[in-house]
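Model the whole thing, not chain by chain.
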Amino acid sequence: MSAQDASLSPPRSGLRAWLSPEATARIAAGIAIVAIWELAVRLWAPAFVARPSRIVAVFPAVVTDPGLWLAAGQTLGAVVQGLAFAVVLGTTIGLAIGRVPAVERFLQLYVSGLFAMPMVAILPLLTLFFGYTGDARLATVVFAAVFAIIINVSDGARAVPPEYIEVSRSFRGSGWSRLFDVVLPSSVPYLIAGLKLAAGRALIGAVVAEFYAAIPGLGYYILYNTRTFKHSEAFVAVAMLAIVGVLFELLLSRGTRWLLPWYRRDEARD
Amino acid sequence: MRRGFESMLQDKSGLARYATYAVALAAGAIIWQLIASRTNPAFLASFTATIDAIAGMVQSGALGRALASSTLVYLTGLGAAIVVGISLGLLLARVRLLRVGLESYIMVLYATPMVALIPFIMSMMGFGFAPKALVVFLFAFFSILYNTVEGARSLKPEMLEVAQSFRSGEWGIWRDVLVPHTLPYSMTGIRQGIGRGLVGLVAGEFFLSGTGIGLLIMQSERDFDVPGLYGSILVVTILGVLLMGIGRALENRFTAWRGLNR
């Protein structure tokens, strides 16, 4: 809830929070969405289409299926690994672009071009390089994530107030100290904003690679189950992807507040 | 600050900027050519071979047909997303309880990777034009709706109260308060939607039924036509850059309304 919403309704706790008009509206809307979905599928869609009552019915069987958890581990493992790689690579290149004009002049065009490119298009090329393997998925994740990080980190490195650099110079700080003690810390909020954007793209990249190259994981689990007309089973996997997407989003926006309480602006790119 | 990446070059005159771009492009092309001449051509097509492949696609008319077919799918999906997203967003801006009830669900759908729905769409709607336009719509829609609702959230209730105290009618409230306040936020959503929609277009053309520019890419992969593969990917990249430029220009044109405290 934004500060403005909070000011409208004084903070409540316990039972009264649950009875507040906001919470009631939220719950009522949720019930309405589920009811409309159930009804629409029953009335107009073929029997195999996912609907809430069937999802609830198959849920215990799907959640106890080790195959789903294996698939989730494979996909998330690739996303986390790829993001870690993209952070290291993206921060290095981003800092270079932000602080070294010659590097900026050469790379800027390519970085913004590849950022604007729809990442799905690169799949045939990556499968050509890496084969139809998990490496192709990892490469897709890195490709999907890295440019968002480069752009944000280079924005951050450029936005370092010149006074900080001057103070570091006056105290005879070395170039390395300037990089690691001044430029890097003040770029961290930008890095986190970039990571938020990159995480969403990485998740899409992993799923898309699994579709394209039939690599085992959540995306392939969805593909396989929908092809055998088990839509409700596949939907549980979609819900898992949604939860992961939301968790990334929350973790990174809360993380900014916990780790960097001094940072207030939200001006990095999305 | 949003445009910090370009700001340094914007300080210079336009000519110097384009000269820098031209030098960077030429240098990139030379490096590409040099690397390609020392690499297995089954993996990396040289710059000149890629350009030749694009010229071939233009001459045979394959590129033109592919672009025309893709454009139709893209504009249908994106157009629907813009119209529905903005109208629904404005409605939520006006009806506070509806907005409070729905915004957490909208946020969840905004964070959900919509690609995951493509297999469902395929088995429900099959092949053809409509499912692909739906994919573009789904990719773009939630960015537009989410950002419009963000704008609605930031609308101070006092503004509506003042308008009502001055006996503004419903039409006046929409025309003078709601739309001008919310539209700049929608433009951010449209910019995001333009990019996401393009991803949706290529994904739809890959995974639903092969048409347009997506088919062009896949066909060259199947035929082991490496220069054609690089050429068609280059075309999509240029398309992405152009569309992102349009999105940025649109957003900047309207963010001026937001003033300093955006």
